[in-house]
Amino acid sequence: MLSHRATAAELPSLDPVHSFSQEAVDAGRVLYLHSRPEAWSDVFSLDVSSGLGAPLEGVHVELEVLPAAIPLEALNFSVPEGGTRTLAPPLLRITGPYFPTLPGLDLQVLEPPQHGALKREEGPQDGTLSTFSWREVERQLILYVHDGSETLADSFVLVANASEMDRQSRPVTFTITILPVNDQPPVLTTNTGLQMWEGATVPIPPEALRGTDSDSGPEDLVYTLEEPSNGQVVLRTAPGAEVHNFTQAQLDGGLVLFSHRGAPDGGFRFILSDGEHTSTGHFFRVTAQKQLRLSLEGSRTLTICPGSIQPLSSQSLRASSSTGVDPHHLFYRVVRGPRLGRLFHTQQGSTGEALENFTQAEVYAGNVLYEHEMPPKPFWEARDALELRLSSPPAPDMAATLAVTVSFEATCPQRPSRLWKNKGLWVSEGQRAEITTATLDASNFLASVPDPRRSEHDVLFQVTQFPQRGQLLVSEEPLHTGRPHFLQSELAAGQLVYTHGGGGTQQDGFHFRAHLQGPAGASMAGPQTSEAFAITVRDVNERPPQPQTSIPLRLTRGSRSPVSRAQLSVVDPDSAPGEIEYKVQRAPHNGFLSLAGASPGPVTCFTQADVDAGRLTFVANGSSVVGIFQLSVSDGASPPLPMSLAVDVLPSAIEVQLRAPLEVPQALGRSSLSRQQLRVVSDREEADAAYRLTQGPRHGHLLVRGQPATAFNQFQVDQGEVVFAFTSFSSSHDQFGILALARGANASATVNVTVRALLHVWAGGPWPQGATLRLDPTVLDAGELANRTGSVPRFRLLAGPRHGRVVHVPRARTEPRGSQLVEQFTQKDLEDGRLGLEVGRPEGSSPGPAGDSLTLELWARGVPPAVASLDFTTEPYNAARPYRVALLSLPARTEAGEPGSSTPTGEPGLAASSPVPTVARGHFLGFLEANMFSIIVPMCLVLLLLALIVPLLFYLRKRNKTGKHSVQVLTAKPRNGLAGDAETFRKVEPGQAIPLTAVPGQGAPPGGQPDPELLQFCRTSNPALKNGQYWV
């Protein structure tokens, strides 16, 4: 269709025209619009009239339509392993009538085959082709030759190029399916045999038996075996049925089992086959060993007195193995600990941590202890249990349960009384005192009766020996041989009273037998005991000992220190130091008291004389914590008084843990310290540590609550009150030294300070090796830093990349196009696209992915500089892969078809978001901006002159219109025998031409001036056309 437009600045009208003038043709206002993409040619006829003679009628104008890209098409194909295939139509074809006839049409190999080569039929056979002509394809001279490797697929990428017309096709990928050929025999790579326990059934692991075949899968490798000599082979899915063949895939899946029967040494012979080839003469050895079995002996029960500590013994827990394993190698793991107490080690019990593992040897040594903790409610018998796991590799683990019984029925050396309480009574001479359940209580007897019936029972105390120096009264009635008993209920009601008869302070007491009493006073079987109740008579003028103020005992962890009068001292003028006795009621977990001249273990009883003589020492074998001894002190004539001894175990050494350097945000210039930077630990964390500055920072200072400070503590660090602030913006890092103090120990450390750059860096996929990509804000962006500081951030290249370089990219054609190395640049350079990164290839290594990085220093006004790293990965260029960066150039090709070094175009490109390997072209707006006066103004003057000269030339050449033209028409025979003038169409001026097809990356914006490269393309001489043909 022919259409018309009024002027060069107006958009073309799509309305068809039926007449036009030569002047409109010369002015480029007559357009041909191609509307059928499937049509490669067109024709229209016209009549030409000049007004001076007869018109020329029936002039036929033939048009041949050329697409923007060469229409290269390809079909995938298959080839046998090691075979060849000819690349010829229809596998490879170029549609349309024109391009296949071009003599200079070549095909370039962008991506060569990975498992084969492209070769000429009669050419050299070394290497692969990097380029070949279309004529060779039509003559069936180009072959794809597979290298015979055990691969299933291959591919290569071609692009067609017509250098005469500066046209090329889009990359076309050939996908090749390799048809495998079974030509390799299987290979047995692993045959180590199997070691197992006697009589067991275990899987044959693939690490013990493995075969491979380069052209067969695991499911095609079949093991065929003879009858095993010491067992049978079964499958996991059918363990009762013996099999004589299995596959490597079943081995890999753990489905093949060997069940041992008979002799310890044996195995089976087998052959390995892939269906066509076999590998014979193999033997798989199976060795069975006597199975290591664990067993538990002993009662597996432990009976313990209430409130006492008892070691686990071999009588209650004793493990052994069938091979006599060393007890140190028999391990117990506590799966569930006790509910009524705790399990601890003699050397670790003071830490208070529950024991989780121990050995049989430690049980033999009595180092594993069970401690029962007295509950607040009375009981007669309670049960507990320890769930353990016994192990001794390689024997299978064994579960064990140790039943613990806590009972008043047990013989208790540590507890002489079976009653809940039997503490005795203190009474003044000639006075009386109540005997209550605080000193005498048999409630645990009642606890043996089920709760619903407990109220019907009582405990009867029968006095077997009365007091010698006093009298017992029940409800103010004296007890005597006629009534020698009282009840637990009367004790609970406070009705039992002892009255001293005077006449001295000799000790007194009574003996009794206690047992359960049923309903209505009936006697019944149950708990019973015979004991004595001690009564201590003291002088009315006796003064009890007076404990004195003490100071804590301080010592380092792992040491021992004597206990002096500064820690334990009482005033008692009536008693000598040897008569003042201390008893340990409860010991801490961080150590124990030891008495010189006695056993090296803990002591529970000592005198003031021992303290005064320096014989009492504290051994700090636990953690560095404060422990409290609960003591009672008595002079023998007064009731015991409670006392306490505080022991502060200090750490032997401390350590300042610096988990990470202090990172200061670049835009803020300050940051608070946290536990990540400063934390003091010994055997535990020191929450009260203090810090003192020993070496101040060079480029900043420390602030505590906003004020400069040289000392601070851990609490202030945890609260975020300690802040480091930069005062000098000349360095990206700093450091300061501190001295940490914690409970008498100290340690030094250096805190490193770095600046965290306010920079957004690339976090996308890999970059193509050999290409040049544009560095822009998608890769590096300090825009946020620019907004916060009101300045243009500057970058300084400190290191890298190892395989490549940062170069300057010219924006205009007048700028030099050489690769200028860049060491410094700004954020504006990134935004303007003035920087490129030439991505190189690692030298001396095979092609493949590689890592690289850029180290930059970022500067901005009013903030400290920061060092940042741009880490990226590179890979060989893949034309079929979309790269999310702007590529300025692609890898060049060497003669061997491998990617070579790339040459940057020197022009910013568009983001390569598709696999089309088209090099990014010049940015037209940038071109106009840079060449406003040097190019645009002269072109306007030239167009003005052309507008004046063209009419004059048209008039002068009206009579003589012969000459060379790019466009020819087929002249028609004159009508009526009249010979008309030979008319031709004159070549359209480049500045007036309207391109009807878009050239990739070079189209000028609507209404703008055409690109100089476009003009050069339009002036390229074209091949001669046939008569009646017209270039579009």
From TrEMBL:
<keyword id="KW-0325">Glycoprotein</keyword>
<feature type="repeat" description="CSPG">
    <location>
        <begin position="544"/>
        <end position="636"/>
    </location>
</feature>
<keyword id="KW-0472">Membrane</keyword>
<keyword id="KW-0812">Transmembrane</keyword>
<keyword id="KW-0677">Repeat</keyword>
<protein>
    <submittedName>
        <fullName>Chondroitin sulfate proteoglycan 4</fullName>
    </submittedName>
</protein>
<feature type="repeat" description="CSPG">
    <location>
        <begin position="293"/>
        <end position="391"/>
    </location>
</feature>
<feature type="repeat" description="CSPG">
    <location>
        <begin position="653"/>
        <end position="741"/>
    </location>
</feature>
<feature type="repeat" description="CSPG">
    <location>
        <begin position="185"/>
        <end position="275"/>
    </location>
</feature>
<dbReference type="Pfam" id="PF16184">
    <property type="entry name" value="Cadherin_3"/>
</dbReference>
<feature type="transmembrane region" description="Helical">
    <location>
        <begin position="932"/>
        <end position="956"/>
    </location>
</feature>
<dbReference type="InterPro" id="IPR051561">
    <property type="entry name" value="FRAS1_ECM"/>
</dbReference>
<feature type="region of interest" description="Disordered">
    <location>
        <begin position="539"/>
        <end position="558"/>
    </location>
</feature>
<feature type="repeat" description="CSPG">
    <location>
        <begin position="68"/>
        <end position="161"/>
    </location>
</feature>
<keyword id="KW-1133">Transmembrane helix</keyword>
<dbReference type="InterPro" id="IPR039005">
    <property type="entry name" value="CSPG_rpt"/>
</dbReference>
<feature type="repeat" description="CSPG">
    <location>
        <begin position="416"/>
        <end position="515"/>
    </location>
</feature>
<keyword id="KW-0732">Signal</keyword>
<feature type="repeat" description="CSPG">
    <location>
        <begin position="750"/>
        <end position="859"/>
    </location>
</feature>
